[in-house]
From TrEMBL:
<keyword id="KW-0547">Nucleotide-binding</keyword>
<dbReference type="InterPro" id="IPR027417">
    <property type="entry name" value="P-loop_NTPase"/>
</dbReference>
<dbReference type="InterPro" id="IPR005893">
    <property type="entry name" value="PotA-like"/>
</dbReference>
<protein>
    <recommendedName>
        <fullName>Spermidine/putrescine import ATP-binding protein PotA</fullName>
        <ecNumber>7.6.2.11</ecNumber>
    </recommendedName>
</protein>
<dbReference type="GO" id="GO:0015417">
    <property type="term" value="F:ABC-type polyamine transporter activity"/>
</dbReference>
<dbReference type="InterPro" id="IPR050093">
    <property type="entry name" value="ABC_SmlMolc_Importer"/>
</dbReference>
<dbReference type="Pfam" id="PF00005">
    <property type="entry name" value="ABC_tran"/>
</dbReference>
<comment type="similarity">
    <text>Belongs to the ABC transporter superfamily. Spermidine/putrescine importer (TC 3.A.1.11.1) family.</text>
</comment>
<dbReference type="InterPro" id="IPR017871">
    <property type="entry name" value="ABC_transporter-like_CS"/>
</dbReference>
<dbReference type="GO" id="GO:0016887">
    <property type="term" value="F:ATP hydrolysis activity"/>
</dbReference>
<comment type="function">
    <text>Part of the ABC transporter complex PotABCD involved in spermidine/putrescine import. Responsible for energy coupling to the transport system.</text>
</comment>
<dbReference type="Pfam" id="PF08402">
    <property type="entry name" value="TOBE_2"/>
</dbReference>
<dbReference type="InterPro" id="IPR003593">
    <property type="entry name" value="AAA+_ATPase"/>
</dbReference>
<dbReference type="GO" id="GO:0005524">
    <property type="term" value="F:ATP binding"/>
</dbReference>
<dbReference type="InterPro" id="IPR013611">
    <property type="entry name" value="Transp-assoc_OB_typ2"/>
</dbReference>
<comment type="subunit">
    <text>The complex is composed of two ATP-binding proteins (PotA), two transmembrane proteins (PotB and PotC) and a solute-binding protein (PotD).</text>
</comment>
<keyword id="KW-1003">Cell membrane</keyword>
Length: 358
């Protein structure tokens, strides 16, 4: 038996219907042991339903769930050895921090003599060492979420499921927690499945991201692959900050945008209706002017928005089509931005020339 067969999780052709609504539509997914996978998609795309099928709270209408060689499709949640973290913490307000964390051990009938040390270890992991006797109401939002995490990891589950665990936190704390969750994942070695609607969070934390739309799994890939090689227009527009432009095929490795031919380093998708997905940071003002291989677009600056760490520049192609790009906020980079009304040339590397079918 290899490692995957021991602790990997597989979902095979899982479908979930609620009356006329298909919440999940024939989804298959193999998650390797120790992998951090995020389920990413807009509201209503089936993320929570898929997580529920993994956790045993939702029974699929058809399909199965496997942990290694074991079919757990109909196993109740408490028989699955899964740690769970929800968005709203679901802590017991009348219990202390320590009692909340120990609850997982009590529920699993672990020997009481082991509780104190295991609770202390779990709290140390989430950087709340010594918080055992605090009341839940004395904690900040971020601390509550860490207690919920400690409760999920205290019994050392192989699999941890998280449903939008950071979405109640403010931006700065969310970003700190993303980094901490990654660290914790490395430390624990557990498999983590995390639900989020925040593409940046998914890219930051995950080994692989599964993109869901209307109950279907659209693409599962590493963050880099997902960002650089989106499989369709939905993924391309959902990830990053892409402008989608109508283009037509111009040979095997090029497309036509207005009067301009753009070469791509990637195979073109099938079909005649194509879209160019241009991420804002991939367009370079006057970039590599002497470099023969880059694509160039002439345009006119229409607006420049100062956004602190970067600036967003809006521009119009000769036929009026709007594009936008990002420049870093450094003075050096800002000097390159022409004033509104002025024309400029922007470069796009063929590697960054991403074409998807419309
Ligand atoms: N218990 C339920 N009864 C009826 N419809 C449901 C139920 N749970 C989810 N749905 C529907 O299934 C779809 C997917 O929901 P969900 O998995 O919660 O999506 P997400 O977590 O991505 O927002 C939605 O259309 C939702 O309204
Ligand atoms: Mg949900």
């Amino acid at each position: 038996m290899d490692a995957r067969a021991k602790t990997g999780v597989s979902i095979r052709s899982a479908t979930k219907r609620y009356g006329a609504v298909t919440a999940l539509d024939d989804v298959s997914l193999d998650i390797a042991p120790g992998e951090f996978v995020s389920l990413l998609g807009p509201s209503g795309s089936g993320k929570t339903t898929l997580l529920g099928i993994l956790g045993g709270f939702v029974q699929p209408s058809s399909g199965s769930v496997w942990v290694g060689e074991r079919d757990i499709t109909f196993a109740p949640p408490h028989k699955r050895e899964i740690g769970i973290v929800f968005q709203n913490y679901a802590l017991f307000p009348h219990m202390s921090v320590g009692e909340n964390v120990a609850f997982s051990l009590r529920a699993r009938r672990e020997p009481k003599s082991t509780w104190a040390k295991r609770v202390a270890d779990a709290l140390a992991m989430v950087e709340l060492k010594g918080y055992e006797d605090r009341g839940i109401h004395q904690l900040s939002g971020g601390q509550k979420q860490r207690v919920a995490l400690a409760r999920a990891i205290v019994f050392q589950p192989q699999l941890i499921l998280m449903d939008e665990p950071l979405s109640a936190l403010d931006k700065q704390l969310r970003e700190t927690m993303q980094i901490e969750l990654r660290r914790l994942h490395r430390q624990l070695g557990a498999t983590i499945v995390n639900v989020t609607h925040d593409q940046r969070e998914a890219l930051t934390m995950s080994d692989r991201v599964a993109v869901l739309k209307d109950g279907r799994l659209v693409q599962i890939d590493t963050p880099e692959r997902l960002y650089d090689r989106p499989c369709d227009a939905f993924v391309a527009s959902f990830i990053g900050e892409a402008t989608m432009l109508d283009v037509t095929r111009a040979g095997d490795d090029a497309v036509r945008l207005g009067d301009t031919i753009l070469r791509t380093a990637h195979p073109l998708p099938r079909g005649e209706k194509l879209l160019l997905a241009v991420q804002t940071e991939k367009l370079v003002i006057d970039g590599d002017a002497g470099h023969a291989n880059v694509n160039r677009l002439s345009c006119r600056v229409t607006e420049v928005l100062y956004q602190g760490e970067s600036l967003r520049v809006f521009a119009a192609l000769p036929d009026g089509t709007a594009i936008s790009l990002r420049q870093p906020g450094s003075h050096e980079a800002r000097k390159r931005i022409p004033a509104p009304g002025a024309s400029m040339t922007v470069a796009l590397d063929p590697q960054d020339t991403i074409v998807v079918s419309a």
